[in-house]
């Protein structure tokens, strides 16, 4: 059998390059390994971690997780993170689709230059502008408030949102808009009644990305928030500093802090993929 025949047979059989599978397994192990270690470590005692760092729990200890779920501080931190993430997501989705709509559907002077401004916004991470941003939030008397964190986060998420939504909205058939105009719909009517429902996958995509980024944000909440207004990532850092010797407790707290964003992302995974595919096709 010739090598060409063998390769054709391998392709027909659904096989693949073993090297690709090996690299994929290494990447999966490097990605999932730390998460599994943290999850299982929360079910172990500090003595178990010291005697056998990579072993399974024996016996299983549930007090670490129970102590976290029974802590009012944990729920206050979770509430703050959830409210800030929801505010950020709502602002990003509403203003993102409103800004992307004219950039995608209408021709006007300076349209490409305006879009270039949003694209350039991708080059400026939040850390570059953190000091003047903090001074601005302080001058507006918004320190230690949910809005003081949510508004800057939404502003820095808008460039990515518009870059994703613009090709998605542009791909919608022009005939739909023409048919709506024939039926008497205005541009605003077409936007609310037809374009918004058809843009669901793209809006879900940018919404999930904004929610997860806000949930995991650390630097801006660290500068803006104090006391009971602090978020869950700050709570993880505080817990790690306060109970540095309680390794099992720190692993349990870190695991619980990851769950909401992880579950939300996995639940929306298919919609994210479909939204990004629509943006690429556009």
TrEMBL record:
The ABC transmembrane type-1 domain, residue ranges: 78-268
Keywords in alphabetical order: Cell membrane, Membrane, Transmembrane, Transmembrane helix, Transport
Lineage start: Bacteria, Bacillati, Actinomycetota, Actinomycetes, Micrococcales
Gene Ontology biological process terms, A to Z: transmembrane transport
Annotated CDD domains: TM_PBP2
Gene Ontology CC annotations of this record: plasma membrane
Domain of life: Bacteria
Pfam families: BPD_transp_1 (PF00528)
Location relative to the cell: Cell membrane
Database matches in SUPFAM superfamilies: MetI-like
Transmembrane segments: 20-40, 82-103, 115-137, 149-169, 190-213, 248-267
Organism the protein comes from: Bogoriella caseilytica
Protein name: Carbohydrate ABC transporter membrane protein 2 (CUT1 family)
InterPro entries: MetI-like (IPR000515), MetI-like_sf (IPR035906)
Entry membrane topology: Multi-pass membrane protein
Family of the protein in this entry: Belongs to the binding-protein-dependent transport system permease family.
């Amino acid at each position: 059998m010739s090598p060409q025949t063998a390769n054709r047979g391998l392709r027909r059989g659904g096989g693949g390059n073993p090297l690709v599978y090996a690299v994929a397994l290494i990447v999966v192990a490097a990605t999932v390994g730390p998460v599994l270690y943290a999850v299982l470590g929360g079910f172990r005692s500090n003595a178990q971690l010291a005697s056998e760092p990579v072993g399974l729990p024996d016996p299983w200890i549930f007090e670490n997780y129970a102590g976290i779920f029974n802590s009012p501080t944990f729920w206050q931190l979770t509430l703050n993170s959830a409210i800030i993430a929801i505010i950020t997501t709502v602002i990003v989705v509403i203003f993102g689709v409103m800004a992307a709509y004219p950039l995608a559907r209408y021709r006007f002077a300076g349209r490409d230059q305006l879009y270039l401004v949003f694209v350039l916004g991708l080059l400026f991470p939040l850390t570059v502008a953190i000091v003047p941003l903090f001074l601005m939030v302080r001058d507006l008397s918004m320190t230690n408030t949910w809005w003081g964190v949510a508004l800057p986060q939404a502003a820095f998420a808008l460039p990515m949102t518009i870059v994703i939504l613009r090709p998605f909205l542009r791909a919608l058939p022009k005939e739909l808009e023409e048919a709506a105009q024939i039926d008497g719909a205005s541009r605003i009517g077409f936007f609310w009644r037809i374009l918004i429902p058809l843009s669901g996958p793209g809006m879900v995509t940018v919404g999930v990305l904004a929610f997860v980024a806000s949930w995991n944000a650390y630097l801006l909440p660290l500068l803006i928030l104090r006391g009971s207004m602090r978020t869950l990532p700050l709570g993880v850092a505080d817990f790690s500093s306060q109970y540095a010797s309680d390794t099992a407790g720190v692993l349990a707290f870190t695991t619980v802090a990851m769950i909401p964003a992880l579950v939300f992302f996995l639940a929306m995974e298919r919609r994210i993929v479909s939204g990004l595919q629509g943006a690429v096709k556009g």
